[in-house]
């Protein structure tokens, strides 16, 4: 069967459903992709219209086909879409490292499209046995079906465009495929909550893996990072089952696989996961040192430093909530846990730093919070060091969750984002600093130095994100998102 025809088959159920409902809602890139495959399968007439025997495909395409030149789209995928976005002024022309990474993603895209049947990516052609039923079935007939396509583990410096590139790749693949894109924190929270549901089963991880792979064969995880011993101890078995069920993992991270969970408790039990990861994924370092957040962000000004910063924050918050008076209210955030939230109108919440980051709260609580609120005013963010290392971890997580939810942050802080983290260093930073610790004054100053590899790496991401979250572009996107909702 010709490649184009095979690809179109994946689109047919969705097109038929949309034809039935008299409304086609493909994005432009999906239409380009479909058009490219139709051209390659059936050819096109002089006016550019595809010569497709399925009249509803021609109708699905007819709205846009005149604007798309056949030569533009003979090959779909992330590379074409990246070029289109640059031409449209949505992206700046990236450095050679971004283009090199895109080539990896294009290679993966081509492989996946080519092996879509073998990978069982089409949601509508897969078995209706799901979750526990499927697991019981597999007990009777043991099955092992590693994907013929290896995934991709993409790592590198902050703001270099890893997430943007992975999303671009993800969006080019058809919506009726079993695919899922999720932040790593969110993914692990979901795994733990599924594990709770299957408590009595002899191997709950196997059931959970069966459920996840039933829903998604292509799993795109943003920001792979392991800081939690509970996660570290289950990852190898979880992903062992997932890969065995044919899952293809695409992931972004700031850390190379070998550096994941560095210095963590019981790391020796985690090491087999690194080997599994390297076996099932092509590992690619983006290699760029360009932080696009700094290139594209113009400061807007919701980050307040200095003596009066708390007052300014309060005034800004009051402006946001208008005439309303903030009222304290108990709000359920996650799994029955509640937070006492000083509520304002318009989905805005106000917290003192200690209430959110110096209490036993974690990613689950923050995700719950930003399901309900889109804006946070955070008062009195301190300079971090050895004395408040745990709070620093929570602040990093809080910023990650806010960024993922595209939430707006207003904050008053003791210092600029870079200065907040000056005392948090990696082991190699600490070694470079060692000769300078000889004088008495330096020793005193560095008693608060926090040598922590995980935090030392994560801080760059947080600084970069705080800068972006304070930019005009980010705040405009936030406003646009609110307008849609
Ligand atoms: N070529 C580009 N043109 C314009 N903006 C870009 C480009 N590449 C990346 N960006 C923007 O830079 C910001 C950072 O990109 P992204 O979040 O993808 O980086 P990252 O490498 O995943 O960062 P982190 O490691 O912090 O998660 C985003 O707002 C993204 O849209």
UniProtKB/TrEMBL annotation:
GO terms for molecular function: ATP binding; ATP hydrolysis activity. This is AFG1-like ATPase. InterPro entries: ATPase_AFG1-like (IPR005654), P-loop_NTPase (IPR027417). The keyword ATP-binding applies. Pfam families: AFG1_ATPase. Belongs to the AFG1 ATPase family. PANTHER family: AFG1-LIKE ATPASE FAMILY PROTEIN, ATPASE N2B. The keyword Nucleotide-binding applies. Keywords: ATP-binding, Nucleotide-binding. It comes from Erythroxylum novogranatense. One of its GO terms (cellular component) is mitochondrion.
């Amino acid at each position: 069967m010709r490649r184009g025809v095979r690809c179109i088959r994946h689109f047919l159920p969705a097109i038929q459903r949309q034809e039935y409902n008299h409304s086609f809602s493909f994005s432009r890139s999906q239409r380009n992709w479909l058009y490219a495959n139709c051209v390659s399968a059936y050819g096109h007439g002089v006016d550019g219209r595809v010569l497709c025997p399925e009249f509803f495909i021609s109708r699905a395409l007819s709205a846009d086909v005149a604007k798309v030149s056949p030569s533009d789209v003979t090959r779909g995928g992330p590379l074409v879409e990246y070029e289109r976005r640059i031409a449209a002024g949505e992206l700046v022309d990236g450095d050679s490292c971004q283009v090199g990474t895109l080539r990896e993603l294009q290679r993966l895209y081509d492989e996946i499209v080519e092996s879509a049947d073998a990978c069982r990516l089409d949601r509508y052609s897969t078995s209706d046995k799901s979750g526990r039923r499927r697991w019981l079935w597999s007990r009777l007939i043991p099955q092992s079906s590693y994907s013929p396509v290896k995934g991709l583990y993409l790592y590198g410096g902050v703001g270099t465009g890893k997430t943007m590139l992975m999303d671009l790749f993800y969006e080019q693949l058809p919506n009726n495929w079993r695919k899922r894109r999720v932040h790593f924190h969110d993914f692990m929270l979901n795994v733990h909550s599924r594990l709770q549901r299957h408590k009595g089963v002899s191997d709950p991880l196997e059931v959970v893996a069966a459920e996840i792979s039933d829903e998604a064969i292509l799993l795109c995880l943003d920001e792979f990072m392991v800081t939690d011993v509970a996660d570290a101890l289950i990852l190898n078995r979880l992903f062992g089952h997932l890969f065995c069920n044919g899952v293809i993992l695409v992931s972004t991270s700031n850390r190379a696989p070998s550096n994941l969970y560095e210095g963590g408790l019981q790391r020796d039990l985690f090491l087999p996961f690194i080997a599994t990861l390297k076996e099932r994924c092509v590992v690619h370092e983006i290699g760029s040192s360009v932080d696009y957040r700094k290139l594209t962000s113009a400061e807007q000004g919701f980050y307040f430093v200095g003596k009066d910063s708390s007052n300014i924050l309060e005034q800004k918050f009051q402006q946001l909530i208008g005439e309303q008076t903030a009222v304290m209210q108990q709000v359920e955030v996650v799994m029955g846990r509640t937070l006492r939230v000083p509520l304002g109108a318009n989905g805005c919440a106000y917290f003192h730093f200690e209430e959110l980051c110096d209490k036993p709260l974690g990613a689950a609580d923050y995700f719950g919070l930003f399901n309900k609120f889109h804006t946070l005013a955070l008062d009195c963010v301190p300079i971090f060091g050895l004395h408040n290392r745990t709070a620093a971890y929570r602040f990093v997580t809080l910023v990650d969750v806010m960024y993922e939810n595209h939430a707006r942050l207003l904050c008053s802080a003791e210092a600029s984002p870079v200065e907040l983290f000056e005392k948090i260093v990696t082991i190699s930073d600490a070694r470079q600093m060692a000769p300078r610790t000889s004088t008495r004054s330096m020793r005193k100053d560095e008693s608060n130095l926090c040598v922590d590899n995980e935090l030392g790496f994560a801080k760059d991401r947080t600084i970069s994100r705080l800068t972006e979250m304070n930019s005009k572009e980010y705040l405009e996107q936030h406003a646009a998102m609110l307008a849609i909702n």
